[in-house]
Amino acid sequence: MMNLSDHIKKRMKDNFLMKRNMPIQRDMKTLNTSSLMMNFGSFYIPKMGKSNPMGEDAHFISKDHQTIGLADGKSDWKKEGIDAGEYARQLMNNCLVVLDAKDREIVYPQLILEEAYLNTKVDGSSTACIITLTGESLNVVNVGDSGFMLFRNGIMVYKSSTQKHGINYPYQLGKSDHCDDPSAAEEFIIGVRAGDWVVAGTNGLFDNMYASEMEVAMKVIGEAGCLEPQVLAQVLADLAFENSLDYTQGISPYSQAALKEGYPIPIKCGGKPDDITVIVAHILPTQGHTLVLGNIENSYSFQPYLPKKSPTVNVMDPIVMKRCKPIKKGMKTLNERSLMMNIGSSYIPKKGKSNPKGEDAHFISKHHQTIGLADGVSSWAKKGIDAGEYARQLMDNCLTILYTKYMEIVYPQLVLQEAYSNTEVNGSSTACIITLTDESLNVVNVGDSGFMLFRKGNMIYKSSTQQHRFNCPYQLGKNSHCDDPSVAEEFIIGVRGGDLVVAGTDGLFDNVFASEMEVIIKQIVGTDQPELLAQILAEQALENSLKTEGVSPYSQAASMEGYRRSGGKPDDITVVVAHILPPNHLL
User: Fold this and answer.
1) Which helix (H) or strand (E) covers residue 424, if one does?
2) Is the separation of the CB atoms in 46 and 271 below 8 Å?
3) Is 95:113 a contact under the CB 8 Å cutoff?
4) Dihedral (Cα; 534, 537, 539, 540), 10-degree rounding
5) Is 452 within 8 Å of 512 (Cβ atoms)?
6) What gap in Å lies between CA 136 and CA 330, rounded to an integer?
7) What are the residues facing 354 on neighbouring strands?
8) Longest C-alpha distance within the chain, in Å?
9) Tell me, what DSSP letter sits at residue 553?
10) DSSP character for 577?
11) Beta strands in 349-414 (DSSP E)
12) What letter would DSSP give residue 476?
């Protein structure tokens, strides 16, 4: 079997690239106010055999606004004689119209999507993902299973999460009763640096290619001296296309997800034929770089291509195993790491509770460079059960597992799974475990605990929350209405020296806006006292929680769900602060 490296080299030489529908391009303007800019390339391969040769994907690139967008029309509509691709195309076109209609210095993807959604009148539905570069961050809004990966130094450091009602049933925008609207979108900000690569795509890409395969592709193309956005987009689209035609017993992201949902291998094996959209953006410094995309429409000759034999992927292939097991790429032992965390914490139980310990719990393992938080769900008190005991036992089990089984490299998902299995008391809780693996945070999260990442005093990333409905977060427990670790969100996010991680339970995030945290952080910047910062943030959260008037993150979220709330939300408050530093700073 041809290995992946040789396969990529062969594909780079083959003149098989098909001229496809290309996104509407915009001439680049000078961006004097930004230190970074994106150079783009894209490629689209509609699914073969469809009655509609245009397929059901759509995308756009606006270089003026340093913004890209993708949409994947849902094919189920064809049973009713409706072309969902038309919905996706109109939605993306409306995004471009909204972008161009107003003189925008800063692009707010959520507002763009909301207005484009309102202006899309045709029947159908689609996923949607809009990404814009603002300063040193990506501002993202995402609905469904389209999304992106962020690569740094050839390693995948972040993958956006997917939203789905069930397997093969993603969140989708549309006007039908069974569809979603933009209020369901996930919004977040993630920091980037010069040299990073953004690979965005519809599920035709991510169902058929592992991150490890993309890493190999980037390495091989880079060694060949032609690592450009357009080239990478084409190669990734082609590899996804070939993998999608693999009907053998090989493992793919799609078949792996199907197995997780209980579908047997003979039914869901190999790849998944689908429309494939890939957009690649290279993050570059504005100074000394000019964005030149070239004459895309005339760059490629038309030569329909169908591989004679699709590459098979053995279950034991090390490329696949990197993704079947916990993410290990680039992880270093404690002695090899270039960064370490200096950690401090503060805990304020809610006043007036019969249990003075409260219902939050957390741990810090400086040896393992790992922290964890859990928030016992208070509704158990109505049944006479102390959910705080569940949270404490869960966190204690995490620490026990760390010190008995993980002396060097930590895999948060496996730690949480085993700790959950060993927690026998009644109750339930959220859970978040974060470990530093060299230059990245490896995270597993269930519910509405989480963290924010601050760089130079500014919040550049906030983990998303998981909830069944307002005030009902995902929660680990053995009761039938509880969740298990399989629902956890797992991701990796790159960090650098000087960054601050502020982790907490919802007692913090329901009562303190990110902008308030930024003011506090900037006031004590340079002191390297995470314990002090944790105490100040916890005290600010306590003060805000006791207010009966005014706007808080909690009242704002309640208002979006149609509830009338004002002021803060009294609750247990846990804050863990980690300052990212070179190891010699901790000696």
Assistant:
1) none
2) no
3) yes
4) 180
5) no
6) 24
7) none
8) 74
9) H
10) E
11) 360-365, 370-375
12) B
587 residues of the chain, pLDDT tens digit each: 445 555 555 544 443 333 233 333 333 333 445 689 999 999 999 987 656 778 999 999 999 899 999 999 998 898 888 988 999 999 999 999 999 886 566 788 999 999 999 999 999 999 999 999 988 889 999 999 999 999 998 888 888 988 888 777 899 999 988 899 999 999 888 888 999 999 999 999 999 999 888 998 998 888 878 789 999 999 999 999 988 887 655 678 888 777 777 765 444 467 889 999 999 999 999 865 443 333 222 222 222 222 222 222 222 222 222 222 333 334 445 555 679 999 999 999 998 666 778 999 999 999 899 999 999 998 898 888 988 999 999 999 999 999 887 656 788 999 999 999 999 999 999 999 999 987 889 999 999 999 999 998 888 888 888 888 887 899 999 888 899 998 898 888 888 899 999 999 999 999 999 999 999 998 886 667 899 999 999 999 999 999 999 899 998 888 877 888 889 999 999 999 999 998 665 54
C-alpha dihedral, 491 to 497 to 500 to 503, nearest 10°: 30
Distance between CA atoms of residues 307 and 476, nearest Å = 46
Nearest CA-CA partner of 492 in 324, 365, 328: 328
- Beta carbons of 60 and 96 less than 8 angstroms apart: yes
How much is the pTM? 0.56
Element (H, E) at 266: none
In angstroms, the CA 373 to CA 434 distance is: 9
Task: Give how far Cα 318 sits from Cα of 151, 323, 424, 466, Å.
Answer: 20, 9, 36, 32
Both tokens assigned to 373: 């938080």
φ, ψ (nearest 5 deg) of residue 178: -90, 5
Task: List, in order, residues 6 or more apart from 129 with CB less than 8 Å away.
Answer: 69, 70, 71, 140, 141, 142, 143, 144, 146, 147, 148, 160, 200
8 A C-beta contact, residue 579 and residue 528: yes
* 175: amino acid identity, one letter: K
Helices (H) and strands (E) in the chain, counts: 14, 26
Phi and psi angles of residue 388, each rounded to the nearest 5 degrees, phi first: -60, -30
Radius of gyration of the chain (CA): 24
6: CB partners within 8 A, 6+ apart: none
SS3 of 451-494: the string is: EEEEECCEEEEECCCCEEECCEECCECCCCCCECHHHCEEEEEE
Integer Cα distance of 266 and 276 in angstroms:
24
